[in-house]
Amino acid sequence: MKVVGLTGGIGSGKSTVAALFAQLGVPVVDTDLIAHQLSIPPSPALEDVAAVFGKEYLGSDGALDRARMRERIFEDPAARIRLDAIFHPRIRKAAQTELASLSDGPYALLVVPLLFEADGFRGLVDRSLVVNCTQEQQLARILQRSGINRSLAERIILSQLPPAKRLALADDILENNGSLSELQRQVEACHDRYLKWANDH
What we know:
The chain is α/β, with parallel strands linked by helices. The protein has two domains: about 1-25 and about 105-195, Rossmann fold; about 35-100. The chain has nine helices and five strands; from the N terminus they run βαβααααββαααβα. The protein has helices spanning about 15-25, 30-40, 45-55, 65-75, 75-100, 135-140, 150-160, 165-170, 180-200, and strands spanning about 1-10, 30, 105-110, 125-130, 170-175. Helix 2 packs across helix 5 (about 75-100), helix 3 packs antiparallel against helix 5 (about 75-100) and helix 4 (about 65-75) packs across helix 5 (about 75-100). The N and C termini lie close together (about 10 Å).
């Protein structure tokens, strides 16, 4: 089974695109969901978070205090590196296990927000698909999320790979600046190409 890595900046519409592929019958493995599962107890990752950052970064329920940690890592790049070292190897291993468990099919979609930035994830995919949009669209979508103000949203965008670099690394690109129906047409066209590509290889 071939694997397409789906990536893009925060607020670009990766989840929407993944859902559209899923509607077409494509198996989807989402590393954000894996990360969320690792952020709730019981999880050895949380034990490492408490040891490295302190128990104050865990909520009363023992889960990762995502809002507090988000503020910390965007104020302190070294903290982000330490957090990534805790989570990324575990996320990568879980993604590999999930991909290996899928029944045979032409291809699967692996959603990885930091496909080009994080170590080891590009080796899991056969080609990359970037969801792209304008920064204005990005900001508008991010600000609809709870707990994120404009200043934090702009810091998050700046911390990620610049769009031009991401696009230069992409095998395929979906532009998500229009309507949902326009995006759906692009996804369907991509799916048709991927079926042919997967079956030809």
